[in-house]
Amino acid sequence: MARKTARPGRTLALLFLAIAIMFGGIAFAGTWKPELGLDLRGGTEISMTAENSEGGSVPKESLDEAKAIIDQRVNGSGITGGRVTTEGNDVIKVSIPGTGKVQQKTAERVRQTAKLRFRLVACSPQKQCGSADASGSMVQDPSTGTVPGTSPRAPFAGETASSSETASASDKASDKASESADPSASPSASAKPEKQNDNAVVKVDDAIKFMRNVPQEWATAYSSFTCPAPGAEPAEDIPGKPLLTCDEDGVPYLLTPAVIEGTEVDEASYGIPQQQANYVVTLDFKSKGNKAFADTTGAIAGSGEQFAIVLDGKVISAPTAESRISGGAQISGDFTQATAAALANNLKYGSLPLDFPEDGIQTRVIGPSLAGNQLSAGLWAGLIGLILVVIFSVLYYRAMSIVVVGSLIVAGAGTYGMILLLSETAGVTLDLPGVAGLIVGIGITADSFIILYERMRDDMREGRSMRVAVDTAWVRARNTCLASDGVSFLAAFVLYVFATNEVKGFAFMLGLTTLIDVLVFFWFTHPMTKLMAGWGFFNKGHVLSGMDKRAIGTVDAPKGTTLVGGKA
């Protein structure tokens, strides 16, 4: 079998093409400066005072659980630079880098009390109160997969799934909804399925009875109910009571008492399944919630009745079910990546075990925790280290230092480009520990070409020409480099997983520079060195090449020894 011919020129061309595409994306995004962390730039601080919904002092376990949930909302990846701490017995403080629109949206998400509950739809524009079918059967349109006259919403899909969807805002016109009603009105206690604790969910059977036989008081309240103005306070969501509320499109609903609390959600994620083209959201419940979910979907399977997901008193999705779903559920619909991610996060991190009243939430702008000269000092340290590496390589490797300098430039460009892209797409921020990780990356890159060059010199001392020594040295240098970078990456990974948020920035940047070093070593250092080995200036051992007899230590070699440019 013929040996595959190496093409270093093509490898270098592909590398530069990849870098050009990356910076093209950066130019399209219009972002040329990375987001800085709290210690270098400052940001927004939110102070939230907790209350126990059941009265009394705030349990420490509940405060720690709420802190963990909020931390996942703010800094789930550990690379956005957000910090969540507790203060005293009832205060959670959230610090978010920056003060722009992205930070404001994050602050709004943090301020949400995020009480997540699951209820059944008793009344809606598509369903008259007390009837499973308001205006004929809810027939699926074969061409669109949706109910005629409705907007795309998200159905559950377990063993099988319905494509029926909830009504759009344009369909809510009703003669009975022309007058406003108090969203928090409670017609009478008799409307509840049975006397119970209002702060607890009800049995599935009781919710089904309410849905299919809506008490007159609640039917009257729904007929006169109009949705509050955008931005107004939503209806109070009391789990043991029915709820009059709306979705984000202004569609009004009368919902049964809650059958599942959001704390029963065990896992939620989003993605595009195999052989599908649209995003879906998947979720799994804990044992208690899983039984209630299976009983609920079994009761409404195939009937067109809806199962509402309610966040902070507002309907965020109202799917149907075609069969009993006893395992993981899947929500599909007209999702974009952003809306699927938002719903998954609401499901996964939605419910807090404590209440955070609006009057106990304060927001203020904070300055950097470090003096401004700290960043300058870190950048100067990195620049001085880089200059020293270049000076050493020029003095020791002479013209071969072209590859050294080129490797550092390519690695620097790749690292900076990745930081910019990650800042724009994943919210990565650069703090002082991260700057330290980048500086350490300079040493990692320098190690790689030193290993290769010294292996080449060893082979050339044995009589091989430079052209041959590049290939023979590459095998051994490659293994050594991969082992060294593997250890560095493993250290970065362990720090990232187990260390506090203050150290995660260092670990992330160290891991990033380590991966880029491997790419540069394979795609630039080796092919560039191979190209130079074919030039007579280097292969014939010019005194300034860095590969002459004196440089490799064979100037006093015994007579008969093949030196640089030999026959090997």
UniProtKB/TrEMBL annotation:
Location of this chain's protein in the cell: Cell membrane
Question: What name goes with this protein?
Answer: Protein translocase subunit SecD
In what ranges is there compositional bias, type Low complexity? 159-171, 180-191
What this chain does, per the record? Answer: Part of the Sec protein translocase complex. Interacts with the SecYEG preprotein conducting channel. SecDF uses the proton motive force (PMF) to complete protein translocation after the ATP-dependent function of SecA.
Q: Which InterPro entries match?
A: SecD, SecD/SecF_arch_bac, SecD_1st, SecD_SecF_C, SecD_SecF_C_bact, SecDF_P1_head
Q: Where is this region: Disordered?
A: 127-199
The answer to keyword Nucleotide-binding applying to this record is: no
PANTHER family given in the database record: PROTEIN TRANSLOCASE SUBUNIT SECD, PROTEIN-EXPORT MEMBRANE PROTEIN SEC
Gene assigned in the entry: secD
Q: How does it sit in the membrane?
A: Multi-pass membrane protein
Its quaternary organisation is: Forms a complex with SecF. Part of the essential Sec protein translocation apparatus which comprises SecA, SecYEG and auxiliary proteins SecDF. Other proteins may also be involved.
